[in-house]
Amino acid sequence: MGRLYDMLSKDIRYQEGMTACINCGTCTAVCPAAEFYKYDPRQILDTVQTKDESAIENLLKSDTIWYCGECMSCVTRCPRSNAPGLVIIALRSLSQDLGYFTESEKGRQQLALKRTVGDWILEHGYCVYVRKVSFENHPEAGMIWKWELENLDKLYERLGANLDGKGPGVLRKIPQESLNELKRIFDVTGGIERFNQIENKSLEKATELGLTDGEYFTKIYTTNNGNHMRE
Amino acid sequence: MIVDGKRKIWKDYQKEIPDDHYFYVRSCIRQNFFPASEVMFLKIMRDELACDIYENEYHTTCSGIGYHCDVVPMETTMTVIARQFALMTEAGYKNYAASCITSFGLYSEVIETWRHFPDLLKKIRKNLKEATGREFEIPEYLSHASDIIYKVRHDIAAKGKYRLINRFTGRPLKVVEHVGCHYSKMFPHKGIGGAEYPYVLAGMIEAWGGEVVDYPERRHCCGFGFRQYFIKANRGYSIANTHKKFESMEPFKPDMIITNCPGCPYFLDRWQYAIAEMEGKTYGEDGHGIPVFTYEEVASIVLGYNPWDMGLQVHQVAVEPLLNKIGISYNPEEKYKGFNNEDMGHPEKPVNLKTY
Ligand code: SF4
Ligand code: SF4
């Protein structure tokens, strides 16, 4: 067997997600991503089960694997108990381990996800932190969100939250000792290694494209080349 | 599908939900966007129903959103989850209540994976010990907080001041239920009613007097898609999915939507605003949207709490049309006031979506 297929098949998500695909297309029919993107989970499972190294390499470097929304709707319906959503998670993982993710527009977005959700987890203990969800980046959050952010402390007190406060409750400040434990877990289990890999490979790509860190971030966060959606 | 058939499916997918003594773990997204819902959950369970729901400040994100954005590796997430279980174990609890659907789905998946790969479980135990010195037991019962409200739905109805009935027509309100994808799509047996016809929210609607709307895209994802929403360039995916759902439910003229997932009420609320502002299209009556609620908000409405105590002022789609239909008394002057009635001004009005 080839190197890439070997690596992929070691991933537990791959083992749990892939039995044998009969190419029926049920997953594609139910998939919310397939409806809007040029995306076909049936084809991905089929490509992978051919064990064709160059086809798998192309997949790992493509936009295709980044279209899935990980909703797992496909898992319920697959007549052969495959889980295309899990196979996608395994492919994305491998694409990052090998540094292939920066070869596609959608893959490059991993840096923006690491710098927001990823970093917030370690800084605040929450995957989203209200003070950092700016109206500018989230105009769709509405006029109500703009008003919420302007009145955050007073409003969240009114609503019974404990924003940045001591003790338990909604949006409490998570004690430093707990954040330290979280960080040690990330150290011991490869979380920090993944973060560093995303940062380093993105830096290489930014340099190759002649962009500063800030320019690269803005580019990956906002660029959509318009070729992703179905006609 | 005929109703009898559904009832049979629901019977096949029953899960055991303990009555009492839970270790409660909060949801990142819900705390940020619907902070009062978790406040109301604890108030209802503790003050109204005298249940023991314990929480402490040391729990954190389960890292699930990071996992599903593919920036957090599996072993890391598993060990973070193991730490949450350790906190439960140390506090002397065996029943775990998750406020978040992403967490709930991931806990179910992780426990199942550990069952299939016992060596991996050993490794996670070792990781946790090394990183934190902690040890853990796997919860005996894993519930989502909506399972618990489902379990007490008849008690809530019995204590309730209001029912989901249109006071002008005397007819049940038409309620769309939206169950988070990760509640039971991966493991149908972990959810009440399974994956195709989950009963967790439908059961609440029926117990509280409403009528469930069955529409074609009922089980379609709200469109969160993790990376598909977080990254600005991908948000077309998210709004397109929500749009598909609204177009599908529109002919049924729903009065309200009830959800049990952290992201769904946010997307179903905010994308209605964006669709209205971008296209001039609104799905409710007279230029309003269809109000979207969390299950705790609906339980609190039924129990007669002040709408502004349960956080209905932080919805972009106005809730007043629904409150008026039920006949709930509320003070409009209080809506945008802070603690101690402090003045906080008013949010700007959208151009197309009608608000109060
Ligand atoms: S998990 Fe991915 S492949 Fe499966 S239905 Fe959802 S978006 Fe489609
Ligand atoms: S539903 Fe299952 S068997 Fe059918 S194409 Fe998709 S993965 Fe293959």
Q: What does this protein look like?
A:
- The complex is a heterodimer of chains A (231) and B (356).
- By secondary structure, chain A is mainly α.
- Chain A has 15 helices and no strands.
- Chain A has helices at 3-10, 12-17, 26-30, 32-36, 41-50, 53-60, 73-77, 84-97, 105-108, 110-124, 142-150, 152-158, 176-189, 191-209, 213-222.
- The longest helix of chain A is centred in the C-terminal third of the chain and has 19 residues, at 191-209.
- The radius of gyration of chain A is 20 Å and the shape is globular.
- Chain B is of the alpha/beta class and 356 residues long.
- Chain B has 2 domains: 18-145, Glutathione S-transferase Yfyf (Class Pi), Chain A, domain 2 (Up-down Bundle), CATH 1.20.1050.140; 153-341, 3-Layer(aba) Sandwich (Rossmann fold), CATH 3.40.50.
- Chain B contains 16 helices and 8 strands.
- Chain B has a 4-stranded parallel beta sheet with strand order 2-1-3-4. Chain B has a 4-stranded parallel beta sheet with strand order 6-5-7-8, with helices on both faces.
- The radius of gyration of chain B is 20 Å and the shape is globular.
- The model of chain B has no long low-confidence stretch (mean pLDDT 93).
- At the A-B interface, helix 2, helix 4, helix 7, helix 8 and helix 10 of A face helix 2, helix 3, helix 4, helix 5 and helix 6 of B.
- The site of one iron/sulfur cluster (SF4) has 16 residues of chain A, from helix 3, helix 4, helix 7 and helix 8.
